[in-house]
Write a structure and sequence with these properties.
Chains A, B: GO terms for molecular function: CoA-transferase activity. 2 copies of one chain form a homodimer. Chain A has 18 helices and 15 strands. The first copy, chain A, has about 425 residues and is an alpha/beta fold.
Chain lengths: ~425, ~425
């Protein structure tokens, strides 16, 4: 805090988040809140968030964990014990936000139902990232990204014509739900600034997935027809998609007639726009194979790089299909600082993705790397008014924990 | 405003957004700001946002337009004319947020560079949704969802093994960039509450797409190996994916050994977890085909519905691969109000997707349907201090416009 006295305050400066989330959707949300300046206190069981063991470990350490838990503190509390829940209650009393990604109802079973939380802390914003929402017939079902993709209709349109419905390779229903939740929490904090009281925010994976259907949904509502799986072809526009240059494919998206004319002009095929066989999108769509063949013949005469330079100069959106290494090493990605290197104490430098939202005045930044398990238990409890005897007693009983216990008295915690 | 005097204020109540965005990424962002209570003033050219002509039209009206422009007002201003830009300048002076999704630099060319905007209105939050960001070698390239998918590495992992890289069917790079932008704008408004000044927010499609790589990126950073395209199979876990019930497929996601044991127990195949051929994930992964065959034989003995009920009861995430109609008519989707019907004046009821973020105290709600082109030009200008003579003169010159002109004096605008 002190370091920033003369600088501008971050958007969430002074906001304390108690974070009970695990694995991906919730931790992605609280990471964004931390990136925006909130103090995020990750409450973990003695075994830690399962994500600490996921992905390829290096020196026993998970880069997956590191990359979704930067800018957080770690506190170990046994929430299965009544005393542990009493510790949590004191943390909640002094917090601004409480987030979990348990199934709806789990918090109430732990003794933290809505009424109790309101009594404890009427200004508290509570948030839950879940699978299906907290009303409706599926409310008690366990959720998972792949299932949300299946049930939301998302898989039904993904993939090539004539093949089976295809999941999206990225865990997008987790991530989109986390992102909606972060938007909801900051909005609720602003409402609290206006109204003086907190409220509950909910973000369901399946709802977020449905919201991604965008114009596919509005088309269905208008026509009653199901969208087809069309792979890399556009369902409504032709030509569009991947074309074969001499040394590989290029992706070209001529989304309207103006841009299509530019594309064909660069290929010296501009006359096709006047040809009565191809002078409307409907006709081109019907003759897509022969049109694509003509375009491939032209594109095949030069390299990817040459076409990409020429087409971009002409204002035609295009690019290479890059693999992940090419994408992450792309000079544009580097210029945008979308790969950052974090010095992880005891584990050396770890690369992770950067900050996708750029704020000019109070940019997201790395304030501290992901925490060792329980590294902040003592400091956070002290700051919440627990005295040394209480902390010692709780630690002896195994109600609280963390690696800090081993080093007590040697070096002081952060 | 008056209607809410006794209610709680919405998160963005009192926030005026000048919205220059077109088509999808930007309008998706400003729709979310409107859903959260902001007054969104959509500035359109005389021809309107191109999205008004996109998708299947009914009575000349686009449901695609309607579903991304609810809770907005429409003002027609010719920004190619100096007088039009002077009108915009006065609107900006009284606004809280200005958003565009032009390429970086276009606003400056129009006379609205950063310094000028700061001089006009130091509390203004400005935001730009763009393709590649405003620094780096590709800053001047035109962008499009398909190209952002290609270049970000997203396509490289999507699709089945042995097939070409596959775009995701949803326009997710547009939508994710819009969602990040909404999160950034609300965060910047909160920073303004703390610091007193506005700042610039930027959200690039390609950066948002890269951020969706999640653990695929952290695995690449750790191992240096490119993720494979694995279609509906999980790249690391087996069994996992689609299995054939008697009447169709079910999606099952046993993401760890505990859940896998539950899954196999329900199938009466629990003994496989003890079998030395299958007792670790690595072994199961290596013998995936034979394992999947045993599971398919068991699953084939009953219906989708029966297995889904049984597996959910046992705590195994599973579900049907639903097409869009099934997904939107699912009782869960209905219970979550993810499909809403909006009475669109002159066009009757229009169905659209609902609100994915649920706030208990100040929920997102439909305050008004998407506007007719220029319906609010007069009212907005009056509220911004333009007098009747000025408005008449601007309208005569064609600097401002809208359907309201035809009905002037007959019925009053909203």
């Amino acid at each position: 805090m002190a370091e920033n006295m003369t600088e501008k305050k971050a958007p969430l400066e002074g906001i304390r988040v108690i974070d009970l989330t695990r694995v991906l959707s919730g931790p992605f949300c609280t990471m964004m809140l931390g990136d925006m300046g909130a103090e995020v206190i990750k409450v973990e069981p003695a075994k830690g968030d399962p994500i600490r063991e996921q992905g390829t470990l290096r020196d026993g350490f998970s880069a997956y964990y590191a990359s979704f838990n930067r800018n957080k503190k770690s506190v170990v509390i046994d929430l299965y014990s009544a005393r542990g829940r009493a510790v949590l209650e004191r943390l909640i009393s002094g917090a601004d936000v409480l987030i979990d990604n348990f199934r709806p109802g789990v918090m109430a079973k732990m003794g933290f139902g809505e009424a109790r939380l309101k009594a404890l802390n009427p200004r508290l914003v509570t948030a839950n990232v879940n699978g299906y929402g907290s009303t409706g017939p599926y409310v008690d079902r366990p959720a998972f990204d792949f299932i949300a993709q299946a049930m939301s209709g998302l898989m039904s349109v993904n993939g090539a014509e004539g093949t089976e419905p295809m999941r999206v390779a990225q865990p997008i229903t987790d991530l989109v739900a986390g992102l909606y939740c972060a938007f909801g929490v900051v909005s609720a904090l602003r409402a609290r600034d206006l109204n003086g009281t907190g409220q509950h925010v909910e973000s369901a994976m399946i709802n977020g997935a449905i919201s991604m259907m965008a114009y596919l949904a509005s088309e269905y509502f208008t026509t009653g027809e199901l969208p087809a799986r069309t792979g890399n072809d556009h369902p409504l526009v032709a030509p569009y998609g991947l074309f074969r240059a001499r040394d590989g494919e290029i992706a070209v998206a001529p989304s309207n007639d103006v841009i299509l004319k530019r594309f064909l002009d660069v290929l010296e095929l501009g006359h096709l726009m006047e040809d009565p066989r191809y002078d409307t999108n409907d006709k081109r769509f019907a003759r897509r194979p022969e049109l694509n063949e003509m375009i491939n013949q032209a594109v095949g005469r030069d390299t990817q790089e040459a076409w990409i330079a020429r087409l971009n100069a002409a204002g035609v959106p295009c690019g290479k299909v890059q693999n992940l290494a090419e994408a992450l090493n792309d000079p544009q990605t580097q210029a945008q600082e979308m790969v950052i290197e974090v010095d992880q104490p005891n584990h050396g430098p770890i690369r992770m993705l950067g900050f996708p939202v750029k704020l000019s005045g109070t940019p997201c930044r790395l304030r501290h790397p992901a925490p060792e398990l329980g590294a902040d238990t003592r400091a956070v409890l002290e700051a919440s008014g627990f005295d040394a005897d209480e902390i010692e007693a709780l630690a002896k009983e195994g109600v609280i924990g963390g690696n800090w216990i081993a080093v007590r008295g040697s070096t002081s915690s952060p």
